[in-house]
Every structure is written in structure tokens, then in C-alpha cells.
UniProtKB/TrEMBL annotation:
A single GO molecular function term of this UniProt record: monooxygenase activity
Protein's recorded name: FAD-dependent monooxygenase
This protein's UniProt keywords: FAD, Flavoprotein, Monooxygenase, Oxidoreductase
All copies of domain FAD-binding, residue ranges: 2-329
Tree of life domain: Bacteria
Organism listed in the record: Ruegeria haliotis
Length: 536
């Protein structure tokens, strides 16, 4: 019997399949469409997805295909309302990369893991029991196939068949606003490719560049099959020196603001747009779905492999549903602001928005926290928050540069891209206590038989503790010669952290001499992890 059936090969379904496949889980992924989408869809790739791409192994590919946005300008009432330049040392605010360009990258990664998408198959019904799920798949010729799996995951979009069949509510409302996505060339555009423009006089017009064309998002109060004409007139007013070329594609759609009441019913779970529908004004629907998949993937793999009981899956909803709710609220707030009809109130609202947006971008935000969510209150975020630095439930910062034992530069998040839970030790200059801590951690990792990995951050390769790590696995040793990592995380001497497979801190224990507390925290968070079949 196959372990998992994933229905839907959009970004969330593909990311989930990759996360399962790289952990050795037997799965099938189906999609009712016979080919991958080629029309304009989601477009903004946020820093939350950069984190995911690094773990998935596709970070270089998405930056090769996309255009990084490093400055954003807002124009209102004929003047510049706000201009902000990215302050991030590693990543820009976001990347211009369409879903239609991201999907081939994810497909190639999935195929490299030996998994092919089965296209032209639609899940029409299913029934579940305590032991598994029997799904009925229909092909294009009308033939049906009964498939038995241990788990069924619905990544089948806003109109999810799986969500509806599970009786999961999808409360909210549909928007009266109409979004348009136009791809075209623009002659005489005065800005660089990494510069994004928001024109706020006519509801909203957002202009970005891709590798091949310009992509223009616009909003209207009424349906329009031809956004090109209205955008041509708008650009003539706001940028008279440019010329809008003929449309390459012109798509119109309406959004909804809806959230699933549950993310799991027994052995059936939903993910991505099946969980939440949000306005394009949030610029985060695809990114939120990718984070859903990153969260669910490692947890489902842990359950399937016997390293955790299925209660772990309940933390998927408790961690991800608040993030979905937050991004729906962001989109609704923006839609309400942009569609304010009173000229005086609209002017005041837009100016407040511009000031807040500038401050948000200046601090490197751009929707990062709502998309990612904060899991500090989760049942698998163990221990108190530290007075300095990130604590349980927080993602490890993405811009901490370290060095491998051979001198090669690496970012901490890249070094923590293991498919498994990681014991992370920061030991500064070492010493007897650090050596004992490292020895205990190595023993724990050895007996876990791949349930755990090890990473140790030391000031150099010279200390006895560092040499123990080198004897165990040189790839586990990371060098922090100026203690930048220690300082950034707020660690004075040494610390033992449990890093979840999604890059979140599960627990953090400062000033410890042994691994006992961390071991107990892991055992409490994952009953069965340290007594899994792999360890017997």
C-alpha cells in the first residue's frame, strides 16, 4: 500500500511531494490537468519561500529565473509617496517569479527524487477508515482506479473536492473587486529591472519586470476582459514617456477571503489554497501555501516512518491556520483601503499606508512574519523564550554566514537543511564542558540512526570539542571565527538547540553541560522519536 496520495500538483502539492520524497516516503502525486499551467498566476516570491527553497535545494534555480526586487516606489497624486531600498544583506524583499515559472523548477526537483506527476487523473471520491484511505481516480477516458493509501492530502485548490467531501467548512466571503494580470512589453520604462512601482491613484497598479516581459497587476470595481486599454490610458497619465506594447496575456479574476475550519479529518489533510483563499492584495497566497507544505511534509514523514505518533499532525493546523488567517486579514485590509471611494478619506488612507509600508520594507518585513507565522505557542515549541535572540517557534535567521571545516563559506540555514531534526550546539571557544556536551550529542545522534543530525558551531577547528566533531563527521562542524553567530543568537558561552526539519527552533537550552534536557524535550515533543523502529 502506498504511504501517501497527494492530489494537486501546484506549488503546495509539489513542495509537499518533494518534502516527502527526500525523506524516503512512498507517494503518488496526481493532477487532473494534462500539462503544467502556462498562464499568469501568483507572481511574488517572498523571503519565506527563499527559506523553503534553500531547504528544498532549489534556491539557486529560483534566483536564476526570477528578478529580485530591491527597491519599491509608490506614486500617489502625481508625487512619490514612498521609496524604500532593501536593507537585507542576503535576500531582497521579494522575487519577481511567476507560479508558471516556479512550477517547472519544482517538477524538476521532484523528478530528480524519482517521483513523476500522474497527469489527467482526477480524484472523484474517497472513503477512509482507521487504517487508511481508498480513493477513486478517474482518467480522461472515464476509466476509474481504486487506490489504497495510508494518507490522503488535498492540494487541490480553492474549490477542493477533498475538503468538501471531508465536510470541512470554508467560511468567508467573495470579493467585489476584480484583479487583472497583464503581460506586455513597455518601451521607454525609466526604471531598472529590480525596481517595483505602485501607482495608487487608480485603485492600484503594480508594475514589475520578469526575465522576458513586464507583468502588471491592476484592480477595478467592475469586470473587464480588456485591461490593456485601461492600463494604456493610466500609463499615458502617470508615465507619458512610455509606450505599452500589445498584450502577451491578459487575465481577469476575483478573489475570496475564506479559511478552512479544519486542516485535518482523520487520515485526510488539506494544504495550500484548499485551506485558505485570500486577495491578491496580500501578495502571499502561494507563499503561504508553500509554508503549509513545508510544515506538513516533515511531520507527515515522521508519522509514516514511525518516528512520531499521529498526534504530531494536529500541530500542523495549530501552527499554520493562524498564519492563513493573518494573511487573509492583510489582503482584506489592503482591498478595503484601495477601494475607499471618498476622495478625502482615500487620500488620508493612502498616505498612512505609504508611511507604514515604507517602515515595513525598511525593516525587511514585506509580509514575512504573517506568511511564516510564529509558533511560539505550539505544543512542540519547548521551553521559555530567551532574553536575547530567537527562541522556540522562531525560524533560524537566514543571513548568518559561517564556514565549513575546509574553509568554504555557508549560511547557517543552508547547513541546517537536513530532512531530519538537528541537534545544534554553539560552543564558542570550547573547554571541558563543551567537550562533554559534544560527546553526549554525538552519542545521541549515533543511536538515533538518522532520526537526528548534528551541527556544532565553534570558533575554530583547534579545540578538543571541535576535533571530536571532525572525527565524527567533518560536515557537522561549522566555524564562527568572530562569534557573529553566537552574538546574533544571543549566546554568551554555549547552548544546545533542537532545530526542527523546517528550520524552526524547537527548544533552546543555554549554559548547559550535557544533553539530558534536550533529549527529554525531544522525547516529550515526539513520543516515539527516540524509540522508533529505526532505533531498535
Amino acid at each position: 500500500m502506498t504511504d501517501v496520495l497527494v492530489s494537486g500538483a501546484g506549488p503546495s502539492g509539489l513542495v509537499l511531494a518533494i518534502e516527502l520524497a527526500r525523506r524516503g516516503i512512498d507517494l503518488r502525486i496526481i493532477d487532473r490537468d494534462t500539462s503544467a499551467p502556462t498562464t499568469p498566476r501568483a507572481f511574488v516570491v517572498k523571503p519565506s519561500t527563499f527559506y523553503a527553497a534553500e531547504q528544498l535545494g532549489v534556491l539557486d534555480q529560483i534566483f536564476e529565473q526570477g528578478v529580485p526586487v530591491q527597491s519599491m516606489e509608490q506614486s500617489f497624486e502625481g508625487r512619490i509617496a514612498a521609496l524604500a531600498i532593501s536593507s537585507d544583506e542576503r535576500w531582497p524583499w521579494h522575487l519577481n517569479l511567476g507560479e508558471d515559472d516556479l512550477i517547472p523548477i519544482l517538477i524538476a526537483r521532484l523528478e530528480s527524487l524519482g517521483v513523476l506527476i500522474e497527469r489527467g487523473l482526477e480524484l472523484v471520491r474517497y472513503e477512509q477508515s482507521a487504517k487508511g484511505v481508498i480513493s477513486v481516480l478517474k482518467n480522461r477516458a472515464g476509466g476509474e482506479e481504486r487506490v489504497e493509501t495510508s494518507w490522503l492530502i488535498g492540494c487541490d485548490g480553492v474549490h477542493s473536492t477533498i475538503r468538501q467531501a471531508a465536510g470541512i467548512g470554508f467560511e468567508g466571503h467573495d470579493s467585489d473587486l476584480h484583479w487583472h494580470v497583464l503581460d506586455a512589453q513597455i518601451e521607454g520604462w525609466p526604471y531598472k529591472a529590480n525596481h517595483g512601482m505602485l501607482y495608487l491613484d487608480h485603485l492600484v497598479v503594480a508594475i514589475y519586470q520578469t526575465r522576458s516581459a513586464f507583468r502588471i497587476y491592476s484592480l477595478s470595481l467592475n469586470h473587464c476582459d480588456d485591461s490593456w486599454t485601461s492600463l494604456h490610458d493610466i500609463l499615458r497619465d502617470v508615465a507619458p514617456s512610455v509606450r505599452l506594447g500589445p498584450p502577451i496575456s491578459d487575465v481577469s479574476f476575483q478573489c475570496s477571503a475564506r479559511l478552512a475550519s479544519d486542516y485535518r479529518v482523520g487520515r485526510v489533510l488539506i494544504c495550500g489554497d484548499a485551506c485558505h483563499a485570500m486577495s491578491a492584495g496580500s501578495a502571499a497566497g502561494m507563499n503561504t501555501g508553500i509554508q503549509d507544505a513545508m510544515n506538513l511534509g516533515w511531520k507527515l514523514a515522521s508519522v509514516v516512518s514511525g518516528q512520531a505518533d499521529d498526534a504530531l499532525l494536529d500541530t500542523y493546523e495549530s501552527e499554520r491556520r493562524p498564519a492563513g488567517r493573518a494573511m487573509i486579514d492583510v489582503g482584506q485590509k489592503n482591498d478595503d483601503l484601495w477601494s475607499t471611494s471618498d476622495p478625502v478619506e482615500r487620500s488620508k488612507a493612502i498616505r498612512r499606508f505609504s508611511v507604514n509600508f515604507w517602515a515595513y520594507l525598511k525593516n525587511g518585513g514585506n509580509g514575512y512574519e504573517p506568511v511564516m507565522g510564529n509558533y511560539a505557542a505550539s505544543s512542540i515549541s519547548v521551553g521559555e523564550q530567551p532574553s536575547i535572540g530567537p527562541g522556540p517557534g522562531t525560524h533560524v535567521p537566514g543571513d548568518i554566514r559561517l564556514y565549513k571545516a575546509n574553509g568554504a563559506a555557508v549560511f547557517l540555514t543552508g547547513a541546517l537543511s537536513s530532512p531530519y531534526n538537528t541537534v545544534l550546539l554553539l560552543i564558542s571557544d570550547g573547554g571541558l564542558e563543551a567537550e562533554q556536551l559534544v560527546k553526549a550529542a554525538i552519542n545521541l545522534v549515533k543511536v538515533s540512526n538518522r532520526a537526528l543530525d548534528l551541527a556544532v558551531v565553534a570558533r575554530s577547528t583547534e579545540g578538543a570539542a571541535a576535533r571530536r566533531v571532525l572525527d565524527f563527521d567533518e560536515n557537522s562542524l561549522l566555524i564562527d571565527p568572530e562569534l557573529n553567530c553566537h552574538n546574533r543568537l544571543g549566546i554568551a558561552v554555549r547552548s544546545a538547540l533542537w532545530i526542527r526539519p523546517d528550520g524552526r527552533i524547537g527548544s533552546r537550552n543555554d549554559e548547559v553541560d550535557d544533553i539530558t534536557l534536550l533529549t527529554n524535550q525531544l522525547d516529550a515533543a515526539f513520543p516515539g522519536l527516540l524509540q522508533s523502529p529505526a532505533l531498535s
